[in-house]
Amino acid sequence: MALFIVCDPLLVPQARHDRGFDDEAIAGSENVCVSRPGDPASAALKLSPNSGACTAQHPIRSSAGLAMTVSFTSLPWPRLRANIPAWPSFCEPFIGGPGYRAAMDAVGILHPGEMGAAIAAGLVGTTEVVWAGEARSPASRARADAADLRDVGSLAALADTAAVLIAVCPPDAAAQVAASVATLGFGGLYVDANAISPTTARTIDRSVTTAGATYVDGGIIGGPGAPRLFLSGEGAAVLAARFGPPVEPVILDCGTYAASALKMTYAGWTKGTTALLLALNAAARGLGIEDALLAEWERSQPALSGRIKGSVRSTRKAWRWSGEMREIAQTLADVGIPAGFYSSAADVYDRLHSLKDDGETTLEEILGLLLRPDGEH
Predict the structure, then answer these.
(1) Counting Cβ atoms within 10 Å, is residue 20 exposed (0-12), middle (13-18) or buried (19+)?
(2) pTM of the predicted model, to two decimals?
(3) For residue 151, what are the β-bridge partners?
């Protein structure tokens, strides 16, 4: 497959104009870079004939008379991109053959859980979406199949195939997933869309960019049926353009880690108050005044009845929300706000871990788990 990369902004319009040139000159089974001889981009690519990455270089002249050099390389796109330390300040990818979609546009999902599959659904039809099925659960495989994702096998194969990786995993695993990707030398766009604090996002940013990737901060608000994907940082606009329904991309221009900060403060209310409501209901039962509390709630706070029912359904996700509460606690502590409530909310959700993916949970079971002494959990 052929990949045509223009490494000078001045050449991009001309290269697009010279479609006959790129289709004719780049036909073959190797990737291609084009740059003006002697420009900084050409040097940054490190594609000299003796580098082992470059198999041939050919000086040419475009139809407008611009001198260019065509460099043929066997490197896959993510590895090639890793050789460009200042990307994307002076380089722009450009279509140059039938292999563009597979080599350039593939987006990898880490991993296709309920929300990850929903994010992937917003990409299917606009680009190829891939995942690494090695050692994943049958449930993950079923979701990936339903979302029409192509299984490339291992994480290493995913890093070699995709130009973009989107991480949607439990917050406790976010840093480890990023470190695994960084170890592979991934050089594409790494999007962390997990429920993590700006501090954790900054750590992940350093991890993946040191290895050669470009970091994009993400945060998801809303359910799998219609998620809003908030994006911030370098590359956010490029990524947002790839999405369609059911995903609604929203770009934030108020800081590199703005998407994570928004997710933390939003979830601090929605999921934090769920933990508070369940804890108070359990406390009322333990104190013998549950009926009186529920009656007063019904009289003066009628909306809480529906909140309790919704809280019961949501406890199947408590196993991942405990980590999210700790990330929210970190977020508040970082700006000098007392964070103890969210540390306690994490403890509440810890007591409900056994309800993972249990769609038949009852309020009785939840209150029973919350009222057990710590030593019985």
Answers:
(1) exposed
(2) 0.75
(3) 131
